[in-house]
Amino acid sequence: MNGRVVVIGVGNPLRGDDGVGPATVEALRGRVPDGTALTVSDGEPARMLDLWRGADTVVVVEAVRTRPARPGELHTLTAADAASRTAATASTHALGLGECLALAEALGRLPQRLVVHAMEVADVELGAPLSEAARSALPELIDRVAASVRQVYGPNHEE
């Protein structure tokens, strides 16, 4: 493996299911190779670009709202897929992941590899806990993100 790996959990843990990104990052501590940057973001595009500056691989964990809603459903997307699919979904952030990726592309700041792990969510009200659907799907989301990170480092890397 060459280069820096950054995992960004996007969301707000005070807004119910929007907290799945930060919850995933917290759960990854000790489960991914040393040197992996684990961070949380509110999703604001300029801050996101700063968080992945200098990274060769970025793994984004995001909550998405879709219509019709399928809370707990997981998606693994490439940067191109994420840009097109998240443009049609609602974000709890002022600007969504699609806008962030478009800005990164326009500025020539997309990393070599970007993977998005997204969970469809239900309740994002301020003060709400994670919904049952999000709690049930969270272990699989954490496993998928950890597997994405380990894949970058390769089978012979020690944690």
UniProtKB/TrEMBL annotation:
Query: Which Pfam families does the entry mention?
Result: HycI
Do the record's keywords include Nucleotidyltransferase?
no
Keywords of the record, alphabetical order, are: Aspartyl protease, Hydrolase, Protease
Q: Which domain of life is it from?
A: Bacteria
- Organism from which the protein derives: Streptomyces argyrophylli
Q: Which GO terms describe its biological process?
A: protein processing
Gene Ontology molecular function, alphabetical: aspartic-type endopeptidase activity; enzyme activator activity
The record's family statement is: Belongs to the peptidase A31 family.
Q: Which sequence ranges are marked TM in the entry? A: none
Q: What is this protein called?
A: Hydrogenase maturation protease
Alphabetical list of InterPro entries matching this protein? Pept_HybD-like_dom_sf, Peptidase_A31
